[in-house]
Amino acid sequence: MFGLFKSKDLxxxxxxxxxxxxxxxxxISIVRDKANAERxxxxxxxxxxxxxxxxxxxxxxxxxxxxEMFSDEKSKSKYAKRIFEGxxxxxxxxxxxxKLAARRVGETISTDSVKYTEVFMGxxxxxxxxxxxxxEVSEYxxxxxxxxxxxxxxxxxxxIE
Length: 161
Description:
Elements: H1 2-36, H2 42-49, H3 52-69, H4 73-87, H5 92-106, H6 116-143, H7 150-157
Helix pairs in contact: 1-3, 1-4, 1-7, 3-4, 3-5, 3-6, 5-6
């Protein structure tokens, strides 16, 4: 009997994970479609989607939802991977891991390095992406009426808010 409730709870959580991925993909696809229609330069779109801000946003958005749903790291990691691979099949996990690794390097780079400013700016973008996503998830979960759109705006305009 308890197994029935547990599997029903898991099914609800898995459906929610799917919705999280759809929300993120929806923001990306709106701008991708604009790029395909040549209303936004494709090269600029590609630079922005591969940016530290975009990676930080994806990680922050997924993580903020998943910590509400799962208490164990194994489940959070499993479903985060599912979200990232759903958005970027075959490369989603690799993308966020590479940007997370770059963020970690930023914590150790010497101020004497010629790349210090570039790395520092990338770290700030990453952290801003995480903060923006967490804010949007918080607003969405508290009211249910808020529609997250900061990733879409960044991809469209390059403005980080």
